[in-house]
User: Fold this.
Amino acid sequence: MPVTKTDLTFQASATNTAGSTATGTGIDLSAGYGASINVRITNGGTGPTVACRCDIEVSNDNTDYYLYRTIYGSTANSAVVEQGVDIPMAHQFARTVFTGNTAQSVTVEADGSHVTAVA
Assistant:
């Protein structure tokens, strides 16, 4: 059975400076069968005092978002934390919010895929 999938970018690779928040744009999942989000948080040569976290949020209207899952980074020097999360097809929109790191910048990104057709 052929399945059509679409690549998604929830957060392009970016530097999240200490004390900042990087909020991705809401992605419309309403015309498909769920999605998968892959999160990566990369520390520099000196890790942050408090680790960055990625809050994955879901919404029914692309306005009011609710916490679905949280992925925590690390405080270790040069650490890379990667984790995948499945979003059930009942959710219409999803986005990522990277925040919480103190003292040092971290590199953040989130991509994924979305099943849009099953033939």
Summary: The CA atoms of residues 40 and 109 lie 5 Å apart. DSSP finds no helices and nine strands in the chain. The mean pLDDT is 96.
